[in-house]
């Protein structure tokens, strides 16, 4: 049974990020599972650091994008929205080229906060970054 509020599609999610950071960095949501999201990001001139490897900030941007999307899909957006409170990341191995793949899964879904884990793997499937984001669940202001 899916945890999502509504029935999200990859097309709809990708349209939402097309004209902001996810689109500029080439991020693509590729899968919406019952309780996880998968997305990809190229390792290219937009996402590399000067040493020629994936920039840690780009990995964190991918992690925050997936965690934020997941958190907001779980709540009723007519009543709540989710914003990032804290994010951390451990960069485990460099990636110089190809496409990284991230999988975001909830660790905790509460009334006022959520915690998501995002695992980012290199093109060979080896874990290169693990991240955790805490999201605040905020009521939509009454009009």
UniProtKB/TrEMBL annotation:
<keyword id="KW-0378">Hydrolase</keyword>
<feature type="domain" description="Thioesterase">
    <location>
        <begin position="51"/>
        <end position="127"/>
    </location>
</feature>
<comment type="similarity">
    <text>Belongs to the thioesterase PaaI family.</text>
</comment>
<dbReference type="InterPro" id="IPR006683">
    <property type="entry name" value="Thioestr_dom"/>
</dbReference>
<dbReference type="Pfam" id="PF03061">
    <property type="entry name" value="4HBT"/>
</dbReference>
<protein>
    <submittedName>
        <fullName>Hotdog fold thioesterase</fullName>
    </submittedName>
</protein>
<dbReference type="InterPro" id="IPR029069">
    <property type="entry name" value="HotDog_dom_sf"/>
</dbReference>
<dbReference type="InterPro" id="IPR003736">
    <property type="entry name" value="PAAI_dom"/>
</dbReference>
